[in-house]
Design a protein that fits this description.
six-stranded antiparallel β-sheet; 3 helices; 14 strands; 36% strand; Kremen_rcpt
Amino acid sequence: MSPTAHLNGILLPILLIFFNKDLLSTTAHFQHVGCYQILNDNGNLGVLMELTDNLKSQLTPDVCLRLCVEFNDNRNKVLNYFGLFNGEQCYCRDTVGIFRLASFDCMASCPGNWQISCGGSKAMDIYFIEWENPPVLQTSMSHYNCAVHCLHLDVKLAGVTNRTSCYCGSGLVSSAVRASAGVCGRPCTGNQSEICGDAEYMLVMKVV
């Protein structure tokens, strides 16, 4: 029998499925905010994303967005900005910046698309992350809490990962791969008798 959660007395059957972490893409888009001066001594760069040689050659705002969305999965808060610096670095950030510059100060082309700028030698192209269904991070995460949250958003799938993160979506990405239950064995922070995925895997619940 499938586990169930209920809201206001209505039973919500939950189908537990185990997939790789990227199946429920928290859909996100980005909006360019501007070119901002970088002051290294103020520590305002943000969190530097490690890039493989392949990613370095493909770096664009889309690539940086994907890295920061993945990085947010393991955060206790969501970083809502990302920045591209000197045509070769991607940073996840929680602020825009202090000193806005003219667009010509961000003239370093992106390796993955030479028609797009990826900052400059002393400047960063800053983007705002527009979440469609942003992940919910709770210190008391449980299957019920995540399912109810996604029910209110009127979507059919809820996913928990890394013990604390809840994602909502309307479907699975085409690259989703089913995995064994053992890889999702970390207990939920809000209910130690339930499992809430892992750093690399997500437990998905179908909310009906």
